[in-house]
Amino acid sequence: MQFTNLMPRDPEVSQEKFHAFLTTYSPPHLLIVSNSAGTASSDPLGRKATLLSSATNVPVLHHATKKPGCGSQILEYFLNAKNSRVTAADQIAVVGDRLFTDVMTANLMGSWAVWIQDGVVVTRNPFTKWEQKLPGRLTKYGFKAPMPKPDA
């Protein structure tokens, strides 16, 4: 199994940057939430989650519902993680490349969303192509991202 989309194209730069990132934001302040690794439907035995966690040294959430429906499980993880200082959803930032999974998860949770446009894997899926063009269209018509609401 490959997780090539985790790192930028230059492996030396990516390892250095990822190590610096992990030094600054180490568990319990990081959590990978994947719709393939760790979900009950796509990874029922947790093998993909174990492999991904081993490769990144970051915990992978085992969750029953795919994004955007697992926000309560993400919040529960951070509220209960040893040494976590998270007390509310608006103290969490969800970082991802998909509007209808990652960003929507954050919005439904009342958390911050950080949308990563660059580095997204090119796809032939028409829905994904449309989704990738959506932010430009929304900003063109004056739409702005909402501020997090902890009681969302």
Question: Could you write a compact summary of the structure shown?
Answer:
39% of the residues lie in helices and 5% in strands. It has helices at 11-24, 47-56, 71-80, 99-109, 126-140, and strands spanning 93-96, 112-115.
Please work out how many helical segments DSSP would assign: 5
Task: Give the helices and strands as they follow along the chain.
Answer: HHHEHEH
| Helicity range | 25-40%
Termini separation (Å)? Answer: 36 Å
Summarize the main sheet: 2 strands, parallel
Can you walk through the features of this model?
With 152 residues, the protein is mainly alpha-helical. The protein has helices at residues 11-24, 47-56, 71-80, 99-109, 126-140; strands spanning 93-96, 112-115. The termini are far apart. The model is unreliable at 1-8 (pLDDT under 50).
Features:
152 residues; mainly alpha; two-stranded parallel ribbon; 5 helices; 5% strand; disordered N terminus
Outline the secondary-structure elements.
Blueprint: H1 11-24, H2 47-56, H3 71-80, E1 93-96, H4 99-109, E2 112-115, H5 126-140
Parallel strand pairs: 1-2
